[in-house]
Structures are given as structure tokens and as C-alpha cells.
Amino acid sequence: MAVVVPGVTLSSCDLTMPVIGMGTSSSPPVAPETTKAAIIEAIKAGYRHFDTAFAYRTEQPLGEAIAEALRLGLIKSRDELFITSKLWSSFAEKDLIVPSIRMSLRNLQLDYIDLYLIHWPLKLSQEVRQMPVIREHIFPLDIKSVWEAMEECKSLGLTKAIGVSNFSCKKLEELLSTAKIPPAVNQVEMNPLWQQKKLREFCKARGIHVSAFSPLGANNTKWGDNRILECDVLGEIAKAQGKTTAQISLRWLYEQGVSSIAKSFNNERMKQNLDIFDWSLTEEESNKISQLPQRKGITFESILGPHDLALELDAESLDDC
Ligand code: A2P
After folding, report:
1. N or C end of the chain: smaller count of CB under 10 Å?
2. CATH among 3.20.20.100, 2.30.30.60, 3.40.30.10, 3.40.190.10 for 7-318
């Protein structure tokens, strides 16, 4: 039996988003057929929320998987799915944004995206092909004009909701000072070892839903490691609960009111990651988790290079912990 994943209602758009989404980014990248096959298995297991981005190069296999799921009758209509994609930083310029979402829609073979996010709070030159980048290729984001174009994407019906990713409280404040439509979501790195209490409180007070990427520490990727899956405290709680460490992390995030984008292309693990809704952590276990020492896994400096803007963005998010 496929699991029914609970949803969270996003403010300012009357849209329900399943609280566990399947991430589609693999590092190193995998063949498109592998991504497509994993997504079809995920739909069979009960996943209805998929997270992609222009930069991941997984919009096309996701689109093919959706078309195949419809052909196979795994879903009756595209509306049963919640699809998130992201504006790549090389197109983070007013006039390029509507064309960018149209390109993502072509890749996905869809008429609309459910949620379109600004991927990073910075702009990159269109010449960028790989990371790290040279200093001349990285610029501050013109938040006001970029957000106006994101609002246009929503009013044109190309996306049902708009939001941001990797935004600090400071960047959100700047955005909110001119936004006509507030962001529905801020997708950020979050897990028991990077809890972001200040950012969560800031977002909660403003009706912005926080969604967690790297909820399992992005093990086996270029930017992640096994710090969550090998964490002793989480491991002890897992043993006591008869669950896995991954499930403890996902359950903790769920109990914080946060949704998670958990990536697994393995059939057993993707099912395991949905099996977090009919049990709970004890108060003592939650207290232990809240006291874990904090460490951010991914920084702009590590991806882009030690440029002033990358260091400034990293310092802002350290302030939000
Ligand atoms: P795999 O795709 O082989 O399952 P994150 O969601 O934090 O980005 O982490 C993704 C990484 O964690 C992937 O390497 C994924 O590998 C692995 N992973 C996903 N679910 C589990 C799980 N339940 N137990 C162990 N590893 C997992």
C-alpha cells in the first residue's frame, strides 16, 4: 500500500504541499534513465512531491517520469503531484525570468509548476559552466526586480506559488520590504545538526514555510557527508525507537513543522523515508536533539570560491542559526 503523505498549506496561495518531497539532484550526476526510473518507483511508493531545478538537469527525466506515470495509470492527473523547480542564478535577471520558467516547463512537459524558487540569493554570469567561479562572474542579486518577475510568473499562471531558497533573514527582510506577494517557502539546508532556530522563527512569524534540503546530510555527495547517518545521539534514539537514523532525522524535522526534501533512488530507503508518520519522538529525545552541536554542511564559499559575496552570504546564514 502506498503511503499517504500529510500536507502543509502554504500561505498566500492556498496550496497544499506534501511534507516529504523526493529530491532529484545526484552528485555525481546519474543517467537520466536512472532518475526517471527512481521517480516512477517513488510515485508507486506514495511520493507526490518532487523537487528539481534547472541546474540539476533533472527537469527532463522528471517530466518523462510524470508522463509515464500518467500512461501507466499510477496517477490520474498531473494535479495529483506537487512539482518544485528553481530559477538558476545565471538567469536571475528581470527579463530572463519568465523565459526561464517557460524553459523549465518545456523540460518538464508541464503547463504549470506548483512552486518556483529563486535558487540562490546571488546572480551569476551566463558564461558560468562550472564551479568554483571567478570573481568577475558573481554579482549581488537585484532582489526587487527579480522578485517582481517571479510575481509575474505567478500572475501568468506559470507557477502556483513562488518562493526562495538559501535566503537568510537579512535577504528575506529585503525581499519583504518591496514584495507584493510574500514568498510561500524558503528552502534551506536543515537537519538536526543545522537547526536554524532563528531563521525558522523569523519565517514562522511571517507565514513563510521552511523546507529542508539535505535532511540526511546529503551523504555520498560532493558537498555532504555521513555526519547525520553516523551521529551517535541520533543512532541511540533510532535504536530505542526501533527506527533508522534517517527516520529519526526526518521525524524530528516533521515535528518542527518543516517539510523535507529527502533524496533516495533506492526502493527500500525511499519507502523507509516515508514511514515516519505513525510514531513520535519522546520529549526527552527531542531535548537531546535540540542540544546537538551545530555545523553547517554546505557553504557558498565551498561551492563558488572564497569571493567576498560568497563569504558575506555565509556569514549571514551563520547569524541565523
Ligand atoms: P540513496 O539514494 O542511495 O538512498 P539528503 O536527502 O540529505 O540529500 O541525503 C541523500 C543521501 O542519503 C543519498 O546518498 C541517499 O542515498 C542517502 N539516503 C537516503 N535515504 C537514506 C536512508 N533511509 N538511509 C541511509 N541513506 C539514505
Report:
1. N
2. 3.20.20.100
Max CA pair span of the chain? 54
Residues in CB range of 80: below 8 A, 6 or more apart: 48
Q: Whose CA is nearest to atom 18 of ligand 1?
A: 264
Q: Distance between alpha carbon 173 and the CA centroid of its chain, in Å?
A: 20
Task: Report the C-alpha dihedral over residues 107, 113, 117, 119, rounded to 10 degrees.
Answer: -10
CA 153 and chain centroid, separation: 19
229 lines ligand 1 (CB under 6 A): yes
Report whether 146 contacts 116 (CB < 8 A).
no
Q: Please tell me the pTM assigned to this model.
A: 0.97
Q: Check pocket membership of 159 for ligand 1, CB cut-off 6 A.
A: no
Mean pLDDT of 244-264: 98
Q: Which residue type does 239 have? A: K
Report, in angstroms and rounded to the nearest whole number, the Rg of the chain calculated over CA atoms: 19
Q: Nearest 5°: phi and psi at 88?
A: -75, 150
In ligand 1, the atom with minimum distance to the C-alpha of 217 is 7
Please say if 116 is a catalytic residue. Answer: no
Please tell me the predicted confidence (pLDDT) of residue 156.
Answer: 98
User: Among residues 119, 138, 118, 120, which one has the least CA distance to residue 128?
Assistant: 138
Q: Whose CA is nearest to atom 23 of ligand 1?
A: 269
Domain residue ranges of the chain, discontinuous segments joined by +: 7-318
Task: Name the band, by pLDDT with cuts 50, 70 and 90, for residue 1.
Answer: confident
Whether the bond into 293 is cis, omega within 30 of 0: no
Q: How many CB atoms sit inside 10 A of residue 105's CB?
A: 20
197-229 pLDDT tens trace: 999 999 999 999 999 999 999 988 877 889 999
**Residue 320 — very low, low, confident or very high, per pLDDT cuts 50/70/90?**
confident
pLDDT of residue 27: 85
What 8-state DSSP symbol labels residue 293? P
Instruction: Kindly state the cell numbers that stand for 321.
Output: 542559526
